[in-house]
Amino acid sequence: DTMLASLRFQQWNCTFTPHLHGVSLRTLYRCFQQTPGPSVLLVRDTGGRIFGGFASEAWRCSGKYYGNGECFVFSLRRPIENADRAGGGVESLQVHTWSGLNRFFMFSDSATMAMGQGGQSAISIAGDLLRGSSLLCDTFTSPVLASQPDFV
Protein backbone atom coordinates (compact mmCIF):
# COMPACT_ATOMS: atom_id res chain seq x y z
CA ASP A 1 0.00 0.00 0.00
CA THR A 2 3.04 2.28 0.28
CA MET A 3 3.64 2.51 -3.47
CA LEU A 4 1.38 4.78 -5.51
CA ALA A 5 -1.52 2.85 -7.04
CA SER A 6 -0.58 4.05 -10.52
CA LEU A 7 2.81 2.36 -10.16
CA ARG A 8 1.68 -0.85 -8.46
CA PHE A 9 -0.22 -1.98 -11.53
CA GLN A 10 2.41 -1.09 -14.12
CA GLN A 11 4.52 -3.75 -15.76
CA TRP A 12 7.94 -3.70 -14.09
CA ASN A 13 11.14 -4.76 -15.86
CA CYS A 14 14.62 -5.52 -14.61
CA THR A 15 16.76 -2.54 -15.63
CA PHE A 16 20.03 -3.66 -14.06
CA THR A 17 21.42 -6.78 -12.41
CA PRO A 18 25.09 -7.44 -11.65
CA HIS A 19 24.75 -10.98 -13.08
CA LEU A 20 24.02 -9.55 -16.54
CA HIS A 21 25.52 -6.07 -16.49
CA GLY A 22 28.59 -6.44 -14.26
CA VAL A 23 29.53 -4.54 -11.13
CA SER A 24 29.87 -0.92 -12.18
CA LEU A 25 27.93 2.16 -11.10
CA ARG A 26 28.70 3.74 -14.46
CA THR A 27 26.93 0.88 -16.23
CA LEU A 28 24.03 1.06 -13.77
CA TYR A 29 23.55 4.78 -14.51
CA ARG A 30 23.75 4.10 -18.25
CA CYS A 31 21.02 1.45 -17.97
CA PHE A 32 18.77 3.92 -16.14
CA GLN A 33 19.28 6.53 -18.88
CA GLN A 34 17.67 4.05 -21.27
CA THR A 35 14.72 3.30 -18.98
CA PRO A 36 14.08 6.38 -16.83
CA GLY A 37 11.52 6.49 -14.06
CA PRO A 38 10.96 5.05 -10.61
CA SER A 39 12.66 1.82 -9.59
CA VAL A 40 12.95 -0.72 -6.82
CA LEU A 41 16.43 -1.38 -5.45
CA LEU A 42 16.80 -4.95 -4.14
CA VAL A 43 19.80 -6.21 -2.17
CA ARG A 44 20.52 -9.63 -0.70
CA ASP A 45 23.54 -9.63 1.59
CA THR A 46 25.77 -12.59 2.44
CA GLY A 47 23.81 -13.01 5.67
CA GLY A 48 20.72 -13.77 3.58
CA ARG A 49 18.85 -10.58 4.47
CA ILE A 50 16.80 -9.03 1.66
CA PHE A 51 16.23 -5.29 1.78
CA GLY A 52 15.99 -2.30 -0.51
CA GLY A 53 14.12 0.81 -1.41
CA PHE A 54 11.68 2.43 -3.78
CA ALA A 55 13.44 5.20 -5.72
CA SER A 56 11.04 7.84 -7.06
CA GLU A 57 13.43 8.85 -9.86
CA ALA A 58 15.90 7.10 -12.13
CA TRP A 59 19.36 6.67 -10.62
CA ARG A 60 21.93 9.01 -12.16
CA CYS A 61 25.41 10.29 -11.38
CA SER A 62 24.45 13.64 -9.87
CA GLY A 63 26.63 14.34 -6.84
CA LYS A 64 23.62 15.77 -4.99
CA TYR A 65 20.40 14.62 -3.35
CA TYR A 66 17.25 14.12 -5.41
CA GLY A 67 13.97 12.20 -5.26
CA ASN A 68 10.88 12.98 -3.19
CA GLY A 69 8.72 11.82 -0.31
CA GLU A 70 7.43 8.87 -2.32
CA CYS A 71 10.76 7.12 -1.64
CA PHE A 72 10.83 4.46 1.06
CA VAL A 73 13.08 1.66 2.27
CA PHE A 74 12.13 -1.84 3.37
CA SER A 75 13.41 -5.16 4.64
CA LEU A 76 12.10 -8.70 4.63
CA ARG A 77 12.47 -10.33 8.00
CA ARG A 78 11.94 -13.94 8.91
CA PRO A 79 10.41 -14.43 12.36
CA ILE A 80 12.93 -15.78 14.89
CA GLU A 81 10.78 -18.79 15.84
CA ASN A 82 10.88 -20.03 12.23
CA ALA A 83 14.46 -19.12 11.37
CA ASP A 84 15.89 -22.51 12.30
CA ARG A 85 13.57 -24.54 10.06
CA ALA A 86 14.95 -25.37 6.63
CA GLY A 87 13.17 -22.93 4.35
CA GLY A 88 10.50 -22.47 7.00
CA GLY A 89 8.85 -19.32 8.14
CA VAL A 90 6.99 -16.57 6.44
CA GLU A 91 8.93 -13.40 5.81
CA SER A 92 7.35 -10.15 6.89
CA LEU A 93 7.80 -6.92 4.99
CA GLN A 94 8.83 -3.94 7.10
CA VAL A 95 8.42 -0.63 5.27
CA HIS A 96 9.93 2.67 6.42
CA THR A 97 8.44 5.73 4.72
CA TRP A 98 9.63 9.33 4.70
CA SER A 99 9.83 10.75 8.22
CA GLY A 100 9.62 14.40 7.15
CA LEU A 101 12.82 15.18 9.10
CA ASN A 102 14.89 15.95 5.98
CA ARG A 103 14.78 15.65 2.19
CA PHE A 104 17.82 13.42 1.64
CA PHE A 105 16.01 10.74 -0.37
CA MET A 106 18.51 9.56 -3.01
CA PHE A 107 22.18 10.34 -3.57
CA SER A 108 24.51 9.06 -6.24
CA ASP A 109 27.88 9.96 -7.65
CA SER A 110 30.76 8.06 -9.27
CA ALA A 111 31.71 6.37 -5.97
CA THR A 112 28.40 5.51 -4.26
CA MET A 113 24.64 5.34 -4.42
CA ALA A 114 22.56 5.83 -1.28
CA MET A 115 19.06 6.20 0.07
CA GLY A 116 18.49 8.44 3.07
CA GLN A 117 20.76 10.52 5.27
CA GLY A 118 20.61 12.65 8.36
CA GLY A 119 23.94 11.51 9.67
CA GLN A 120 23.75 8.02 8.19
CA SER A 121 22.23 6.35 5.13
CA ALA A 122 19.55 3.67 5.27
CA ILE A 123 21.34 2.04 2.33
CA SER A 124 24.70 2.99 0.86
CA ILE A 125 26.30 0.90 -1.88
CA ALA A 126 29.93 1.29 -2.94
CA GLY A 127 30.91 1.93 -6.54
CA ASP A 128 31.96 -1.68 -7.11
CA LEU A 129 28.42 -2.77 -6.13
CA LEU A 130 29.95 -5.52 -3.97
CA ARG A 131 29.73 -3.94 -0.53
CA GLY A 132 27.79 -1.33 1.35
CA SER A 133 26.36 -0.22 4.65
CA SER A 134 22.99 0.20 6.29
CA LEU A 135 22.70 2.38 9.38
CA LEU A 136 20.03 4.09 11.45
CA CYS A 137 18.59 6.77 9.18
CA ASP A 138 16.64 9.94 9.96
CA THR A 139 15.11 10.27 6.48
CA PHE A 140 13.06 7.10 6.93
CA THR A 141 13.47 6.59 10.71
CA SER A 142 14.72 3.17 9.72
CA PRO A 143 16.86 0.68 11.65
CA VAL A 144 19.79 -1.22 10.16
CA LEU A 145 18.20 -3.07 7.24
CA ALA A 146 21.05 -5.49 6.46
CA SER A 147 22.28 -8.48 8.48
CA GLN A 148 25.17 -6.30 9.70
CA PRO A 149 25.76 -2.52 9.42
CA ASP A 150 28.53 -3.21 6.87
CA PHE A 151 27.43 -5.78 4.33
CA VAL A 152 28.79 -7.66 1.34
UniProtKB/TrEMBL annotation:
<dbReference type="Pfam" id="PF07534">
    <property type="entry name" value="TLD"/>
</dbReference>
<dbReference type="InterPro" id="IPR006571">
    <property type="entry name" value="TLDc_dom"/>
</dbReference>
<feature type="domain" description="TLDc">
    <location>
        <begin position="1"/>
        <end position="152"/>
    </location>
</feature>
<protein>
    <recommendedName>
        <fullName>TLDc domain-containing protein</fullName>
    </recommendedName>
</protein>
